[in-house]
Amino acid sequence: MVESFRQERDRYLQSAEREVVELALAVSARILRREAQMDPLLLTGAVRVALGQISGSTQVRLRVPPEDFSLWAEAMTLLPNLAVKPTVIAAEGMRLGDCRIETEMGTVDLGIRAQLSEIERGFFDRAGVKRAEATARLHQTASDAGVSVGNAEQVTSA
Question: What predicted TM-score, i.e. pTM, was given to this entire model?
Fold first, then answer.
């Protein structure tokens, strides 16, 4: 009887932990979406750090949503001390909070959805939840919160 209670308690706590993680991710997604609406250049810091890791002899393209193109183009000209200045490209199909750096070596998605997806994987990996189940849970939670979450991979090689 005690063992049965212990197992039931463990199942309940594991379920509660998942629900708390889902709630935290949904709240984060809404906050980040709101921040991106208020400041389309929200990801400038992440872009600057990524550009600092790239060799000056490499061609770099920064793909951003068309409606944010002029802001990003101006921001890239004003950022000091960059070894490489990217060519800013208005990429059709990109949405608010999307941002991707491309080089001959590969692509890095720095967008909000990609970052949330990475956080989601970390949370659920730690909780021992299978990736497919975690992704399905995140998409359902985000959908319930009115936020779209993509399936972008953090880094892809060329």
Answer: 0.65
